[in-house]
Amino acid sequence: MDGGANMSIEWDIPEELLQQAAEAIVQADALLIGAGAGMGVDSGLPDFRGNKGFWNAYPPFQKRGLSFIDMANPKWFYNEPEVAWGFYGHRLHLYRDTVPHEGFSVLRRFAKDMTHGAFVYTSNVDGQFQKAGFDDEQIVECHGSIHHMQCALPCASHIWDGHSEVVEVDEETFEASPPMPACRHCGYMARPNILMFGDGMWIAKRTTEQERRYKKWLASLTGHVVVIECGAGTAIPSVRWACEGVTKRAGGTLIRINPREAYGPAGILSFECGALRALSAIEERVQELRA
């Protein structure tokens, strides 16, 4: 489901850990990238971890006693569409304006030298991997995308590209002004094609097609697989489960990067820091090994 983010903390990365991670990457034939909301923190995206983080980003919702989970619910599109599109419209423009941090480029460089390249499995709805240059055909957005729209009813199973949609949002109240995005087929209220909490109206066909391509890629793999998971927490563990499952089936190496929840099954390499810091440090060691 739609989720928030983690914050980085200072931590001395053990040299042995860096060496193990770098060796796994250099020896790998394929890279699976798992990403949760913590991946975006180094790009300057807001931290929604807990009510305090959410309310720092959206003060008007604190006055109403509304949490992130309260707001990430499709009911607002029926009951108070100006509030729904105030929240999602603000985020839509935020993600459009955000520049992905250098860690995304590090991951692309890791994959460049691998026989089977990389696939991304992310719970993020922000489209940052596409913006960073990853192939859209090699990405699973398991909770959907804010850059794609659907009917809020829905009237049919149509999903369309939302890059032309413009939502005017009052920065004081975080409420949207008419006109708000409308369904291109029936004219009713449109909403992002995101899996929200308590959501029985999400159209999953785009994500289902992504998962079909992902499974085909997994089935084609030979050799060693390395899994790098960045900022995926336990509250909504979709990405963690996917990464652990691939590691178990393929017998590969799981590198888990998370400042608060880096722990996991035996044999994983745990980096207790933010994504950019860990990836940059690992790349330095990879370059030394390849020199």
Tell me what the structure shows.
A 6-stranded parallel beta sheet has the order 3-2-1-9-10-11, with helices on both faces. The protein has a 3-stranded antiparallel beta sheet with strand order 5-4-8, sandwiched between helices. A two-stranded antiparallel sheet has the order 6-7. It is α/β, with parallel strands linked by helices and 291 residues long. Mean pLDDT is 94; it is low at 4-9. The termini are far apart. The chain has helices at residues 15-27, 50-57, 59-63, 68-71, 75-79, 81-97, 102-112, 128-131, 205-220, 238-250, 275-290; strands spanning 30-35, 118-122, 139-141, 144-151, 159-161, 168-169, 176-177, 190-194, 225-230, 253-257, 269-271. It is built from 11 helices and 11 strands. 46% of the residues are buried. The longest helix is centred in the N-terminal third of the chain and has 17 residues, at 81-97. α1 crosses α11 and α7 runs parallel beside α11.
Tally of DSSP helical segments: 11
Mean pLDDT: 94
Residues in β-strands, percent: 15-25%
Cα radius of gyration in angstroms: 19 Å
Q: What is the percent of helical residues?
A: 25-40%
Keywords:
291 residues; alpha/beta; six-stranded parallel sheet; three-stranded antiparallel sheet; globular
Outline:
The protein is α/β, with parallel strands linked by helices and 291 residues long.
Write the layout of secondary structure elements.
Blueprint lengths: L14 H13 L2 E6 L14 H8 L1 H5 L4 H4 L3 H5 L1 H17 L4 H11 L5 E5 L5 H4 L7 E3 L2 E8 L7 E3 L6 E2 L6 E2 L12 E5 L10 H16 L4 E6 L7 H13 L2 E5 L11 E3 L3 H16 L1
Parallel strand pairs: 1-2, 1-9, 2-3, 9-10, 10-11
Antiparallel strand pairs: 4-5, 4-8, 6-7
Helix pairs in contact: 1-11, 7-11
